[in-house]
Amino acid sequence: MKQVIDVKTSGGVRRVGAGGDTVVHVGGVPVGPDHLTVIAGPSTVESEEQIRAAARVVKRLGGGILRAGVFQPKASPYEFQGLGETALRLLRDAADEAGLPVLTEVADPRDVGLVVEYADALLIAARDMQNLPLLKEVGLARRPVFLERGPAATIEEWMLAAECILDAGNPQVVLCERGIRTFDTAAGATLDLAAVALVKRLSHLPVVTDPHYHGGHPDLICGMARAAVAAGSDGLMIRVHPDPDRALCEGPQSLGPLDFAALMHDVRRLAPLVGKKLP
Amino acid sequence: MKQVIDVKTSGGVRRVGAGGDTVVHVGGVPVGPDHLTVIAGPSTVESEEQIRAAARVVKRLGGGILRAGVFQPKASPYEFQGLGETALRLLRDAADEAGLPVLTEVADPRDVGLVVEYADALLIAARDMQNLPLLKEVGLARRPVFLERGPAATIEEWMLAAECILDAGNPQVVLCERGIRTFDTAAGATLDLAAVALVKRLSHLPVVTDPHYHGGHPDLICGMARAAVAAGSDGLMIRVHPDPDRALCEGPQSLGPLDFAALMHDVRRLAPLVGKKLP
Amino acid sequence: MKQVIDVKTSGGVRRVGAGGDTVVHVGGVPVGPDHLTVIAGPSTVESEEQIRAAARVVKRLGGGILRAGVFQPKASPYEFQGLGETALRLLRDAADEAGLPVLTEVADPRDVGLVVEYADALLIAARDMQNLPLLKEVGLARRPVFLERGPAATIEEWMLAAECILDAGNPQVVLCERGIRTFDTAAGATLDLAAVALVKRLSHLPVVTDPHYHGGHPDLICGMARAAVAAGSDGLMIRVHPDPDRALCEGPQSLGPLDFAALMHDVRRLAPLVGKKLP
Amino acid sequence: MKQVIDVKTSGGVRRVGAGGDTVVHVGGVPVGPDHLTVIAGPSTVESEEQIRAAARVVKRLGGGILRAGVFQPKASPYEFQGLGETALRLLRDAADEAGLPVLTEVADPRDVGLVVEYADALLIAARDMQNLPLLKEVGLARRPVFLERGPAATIEEWMLAAECILDAGNPQVVLCERGIRTFDTAAGATLDLAAVALVKRLSHLPVVTDPHYHGGHPDLICGMARAAVAAGSDGLMIRVHPDPDRALCEGPQSLGPLDFAALMHDVRRLAPLVGKKLP
Prior knowledge:
The structure is a homotetramer.
Chain A: E1 4-5, E2 21-22, E3 24-26, E4 29-31, E5 37-41, H1 48-61, E6 65-67, H2 85-98, E7 102-105, H3 112-118, E8 121-124, H4 132-140, E9 145-148, H5 155-167, E10 173-177, H6 193-202, E11 207-209, H7 218-230, E12 235-239, H8 257-270
């Protein structure tokens, strides 16, 4: 039987000997080998009404963690930049009301102190995978960190970035695959599910998958979500918006409540086949 | 309810209007939207004993089509080059004995006439996806053609290559995803399962997946096979050898009988969840 | 002083010990370490008038070898497919009139016998770099072979493909870099000039560069041609059309006479700085 | 005749109408269309003696700007992390003694205030190309910024990152091409010289090239440096160490004084051919 420990208290990212898999807890919600944890929510907090509606949908349909962006840094000065601390408070309140823990992105090392006051876990976006001052800062925080793979990062580089966080003192790291950049631009990024399987062999850390970065067809997102579960992912990151057509940000890539319900239906049937249950 | 036609008799690779999906029959075995067809066998025919043992394993465990290489062209003059026509005959006899149809690669347009005397279906390998004289020649043959995606081919280019076969008069084409070349060399090629889902939306042709090209761990091959089924593949191409340790070719990437049995076990449980049955 | 031999009569593609560089002669024109040989001509032979005009332009401005396609295989059934043997004869006559040797593509192993009756050298296009029956067939021909690098071929694979030709008995191989496929599609393929420098260190074969595959600005083509010479290329493959606006094929990527004259002007000034002269 | 303005005071990264090229001045040294500026120095400041020796070599052989790392953030916790502010002071003193301006990397937005006290220009490394808080912070600084292209950044994304700096109020941006990540790992990154030519057409900003990221052969570095000049680069970033065999960091990729002298010799001869002079 597979030995499971709550959090590795020493050592690095790589498996050593017969050590068990790490389980990371976000609020009380486990992310690890025995569970299939769905982390869901809108791309950005837009208003009190929107985030409360989103939180209710996520909770009711079986999501385990609420996720939304608040600072919304964009790689262009011309896009919506988010609502900042106001949004953090709205996000926290909506999550509390629905009974969900909160994951949100942090991109500036100077914001970490503020964000940990509101969020249960921190997300390092793909573009910041090698933002070394940021990795060090979240390594000092007492919150789980979800570390997205950079769009051109090898598995080795991804694990080294996680190592920077562990090395700074924080053992609660979850890896997140969300697609790599290849010549194939028809589907946005190329979701690399073999990397999920491979990194789970090499490392004891949980690995979740974000199946969104390949265009905006709900069918494709659900298909890739199923494939991610079948490949062994410990969780899914899903963009859910109460009304995608009115979203300020990434609407076409977001699932509405009905599509999210269909996805959860599939996931519930698949999870037992790979030895997992929803938390 | 989804309309299914046996083979499109006109038109191209792309879906037009509400037309149904194409079903390609290899021997009597269907490849198409309602089935999950497992095509399996050793990389190369090595001897009468080996190919007979392989055929028995494939048949007994539920494989639908026997597949093995006979000419085994290699992109280096220093590797084993296959047994040629002798191997074709051994392959045919082993398949007949086991009650399976045969798929084998053809790489030289001058060999097509010979190969169709023995094989039920023809495989165009990834490296030949844009070998235009070869595409034209198999387009004139009265055998189904499995067309692997080139390692750097966009979905558009892959579909155009299929179009060359249809255009020459042969509507029985099955597309085969087997991984693209990316910066991530840790897992050999990067299996692009979103492409499977995407090309099934764009085209009416069946799509199968070869989950082998990412290193030689049976665990990873089985994981990616499960993911391919979950993503909607109409079939799997699996390298099975009665004794991988003694294989002359691609042994480390081949499954032995026990690993193949485990894979078939998983596949049987997954297929109904995506609306498919084994033929 | 660098030892130069005319053609290696034994051994493989790799440098061994202090052996010299191979010089390949096309007609009487050398391609090798001391020369900068410009191979130029239209993408396709369109008419007697067009190819004669092109040949005159190439010769007058200092091109060493005339190059044009005659079969023009395309990776889509819907494009112009070339004029075949008629075009071969027009190409030969135009070249003879202008006093140039001829390079043309061959894509079907069954065409090699015909093509060698007309052409001084054979071109294997990028898409056929691993077309093994074709490599073997040109390996039996007594004509120099220009082998383009496949769009996703590593340097190792490119050299192994050349090895297939040498191994079949033909030591007169010239390598041709023409860009690799990367995520950066803004410039078509990505010209990999470091590969030119690297393969010249690893191998004794001449290496030429085709700077066209990155969009159709004459400025960019000339800039990349200069860069290729500065990086150590032994030659350039240039698409020249007497009237690009009327070209049936790849017109926007072709240089007209004035742009070609400007390119030759730059090349003449650069060549001496890298120890080369025009033949 | 090409109109040249000192620094664009309004508008974005893209060329608009017949506007001239931007010239950025570092200390008094120009980087722009009429010059070929060599920015050189060791990967890291290791000691007072080392950086003074390096500065003397750079100045004597014709380098225009001294460059060295001081914080040396590494994407692994196990590598040398640099000497910090002590190194900044040593770098400044060595540069003053030699009569050179200073370029150094900044990776943490909290360090910008400190670094501008010592450095004439700031380098944003490839891994930080989309570090948005950092871009904003250097956009507020009154120092020129050299912005390296991310290893998987399209030209569009690179220009948008520059736009973030301009948008924050700093018009003094120099773009730096240093290779993209492709399947071809034989040469580290793939130097994309077509991107240099292309971005110079699209933007009015100066573009320099770092030819180092393709392995450690001085021959290849010099070859790519020549190619970069021939392709139209406005400058070169060269790693020079007084004694590469003893370097603490990137020694094998650094040129010693003799190799640097050879490179400068080549560059001096090439520059006039592309209409440039050394400042």
